[in-house]
Each structure stands twice: as C-alpha cells, then as structure tokens.
Input
Amino acid sequence: MSAAATVSLLAPAKINLFLHVTGRRPDGYHLLESLVAFADIGDTLTVTAAAEDCFGLEISGPFAGPLRADPPETNLVLRAAKSLADILGCRCGAHIHLDKHLPVASGIGGGSTDAAATLRALCQLWQADPEPAALAVLAEQLGADVPVCLAARPAFMAGIGEQVHPLPALPSLPLLLVNPGVPVSTPAVFKARQGTFTPATGPAEVEALFSGAAGTSPAAFAEALGQFENDLGAPARQIEPLIDQALASIAAQPACLLARMSGSGATCFGLFESDTAAEAAARTIGAGQPGWWVRPGHLG
Ligand code: C5P
Output
C-alpha cells in the first residue's frame, strides 16, 4: 500500500438529540433509541505514516491531562489503530496526534469520536478499504458509540449502538454546548436508572418525522424534538446535581429553543434561534461560570 503523508480530521462532538432506554440485554447492556447528530466542535486527529508495526500517540490540548495519565495500551485511539491494521492484515504503522478539546467522560462521545476519526483517518493514510462488515464489528468492539461516530452523520441509533440508520441532513442549527466541569461515569448513570423502559418506536417513525428536517426552521425542529427525552437525564442529575444548573442556565438564555443533556452527561446542549443568540448565551454563561466549558457552534 502506498501512503499519503499526513491526514488531519475533526473528531466532532456527538450530540444525542434524544435518547430513550428501551430495554436491557441479558449481558447488562441497555437497548437504546437515539437521534444522533454531530457538532462543528471537536478534537483534531492527525495521523502520519510511520515504520512498519510502529504506533505512536501524542496528546495535546486543554483536556489532554486525564488521557495522558492512562496507560497507552488502554487508549481507545491506539486500540482502534492497531485493530484496524489487524483486520487489514497489513504491517502499517502510524504516528497519531490527538489534540483534545472535548471534555472527557462528558456525554458527547469524546473517546468514541476520536476512535472513529482514527479509523477514518488511517483508512485514508493507508489507502485502505476494509470490508464494511469487519469494520462495523471492530467499531462495535471499541465501544457502543463508535459505530454511529464512524458514520459521522445524522442517524437514528438503536440496539446498544450497533444499529445505525443514516438520516438525511438536518438543518444547520445554532448550538451551545455547556459542561459544568465534572466528569460523569457512564456505567454509574446506567446503573442508577430506575423505572420502566420507554417503548421502542423503531426507525420508521423517527425517519418520517425528521426526513424533511433540512428545510424546517430551528424552532420547528426543536418543537419536534420536544416530544422525546433523554432518559438518562434523571439518573445523571441525581449523581451530579450541577447538570441541573447547566440546564437551567441554558434554558434561561434569550431565544433558547431547547435545553437538554447529551448521552450520559454531564454536557448539556441548547438549540437557539440564531448564531447571535447562541454566541450571546455563551458569553453570559461563560462570564457567570468561568470554570465551565462553554462553546457555541452548529449542529448538522
Ligand atoms: O461501550 P461503552 O464503553 O461506551 O459503554 C460504557 C458502559 O456503559 C458499559 O460498560 C455499560 O455499563 C454502559 N452501557 C450500557 N448500555 C449501552 C452503552 C453503555 O449499559 N448501550
């Protein structure tokens, strides 16, 4: 295989616009239904060709610290790279630079989106075209959110995350991401969830509801989302009450159309009428809570 010199990609934040827990498998994993979209805010992943079988990882950026503390062999990015070389049956190597701008353990798929971007970037670098079924199995083995992050486009996600139904484009919505500066453990949130499961709807209803979404206004889109929820919101808020504060501060901003938690938290998102409103909200919340991570951007 001949190699390109360097490939650099955005590993975008994954936003669960809604997330329903519909059941639980015998192995303890939860069955989910979620409408997932991606923001123009994320980590940057750069891969460079290296000698055969050689893999190196460098981590920089404001959230590099917690990842640098982990042993390299447990890092999802390195595991993704080595597993891809294995399924390709090649002796390729790569130097990987992860510039970490998304908070870790924060419900916006940080590790999963980095792993998915690694797979995409290395396929380009190595000019490889892995068998789709093998790539799907690899993505699922890396983590429940990796398959949807590999698609990196709006999708209805089901099963434990392995079923990804791509959707047509969503409108480019003004977005605000707010993390109150606390990591939240995904297994702990699933464990704290109580009560009945939300009945599954299946992809058809969600596809029908959002298939013409690209032409709708932010307000109409947010209203359609209003009939869904994030079922992990209650257990996550119980574990980390600052999530309530983050949600309330987003909802209190002018022209906010919807405020909701993503994934298992603690990052919350707001959808806004306009870029100006999202940017003004970011300034207000950031000034009041200097320790919080607050980013305006776009979804879709
Ligand atoms: O697969 P991932 O590493 O993202 O999941 C972390 C943990 O979250 C799992 O070990 C499991 O406890 C919980 N989880 C779950 N159901 C899912 C996804 C994650 O119970 N669909």
